[in-house]
Predict the structure.
Amino acid sequence: MLILGIDPGLALMGYGLIQADGDDLTAIDYGVISTPAGENIASRLCTIYSELTALIKRYSPAEVAIENFIAKNLRTALMVGQARGVAVLAAAQNGLPVYDYTPLMVKQQVTGYGRGSKMQIQQMVKMQLALDNIPQPDDAADALAIAICHVQQSGAARLIAESEEGA
């Protein structure tokens, strides 16, 4: 199953595509969608929507996992929230189910510890995907971590559902 992980942001939106075949995870593509700070918000949101839609059409992922961020600054929350909404819209308009994960959930799934550092997450992403280097920039590594979290969460949910069906 191909999963698209998204780390929402207005200036930089990280994306990571991983192929999950049982316990085997393979990085297919990752990077960022960037928008210039001097551009108006509507144009930046259009860029995010267009580029995400192009990624979805190019790779045809089965599911989308996106971080449900927590921002302490109201202005940041509003800006990132708008970018996140556009990402959810792009997925929904392409018929893809969208799954939300908090930063704590991602850290717990990827590092085994909910307070793992950014470096620990990046190292675990590198190891779990058998990459030569830590994915750059950080937003891309975070998006891959979100996709890994989804694979692990959805795998556990499927096992529970199967055991309940068999009972």
Observations:
- The two ends are 27 Å apart (CA to CA).
- Helices lie at 41-59, 74-93, 103-111, 118-128, 138-166.
- The longest helix spans residues 138-166.
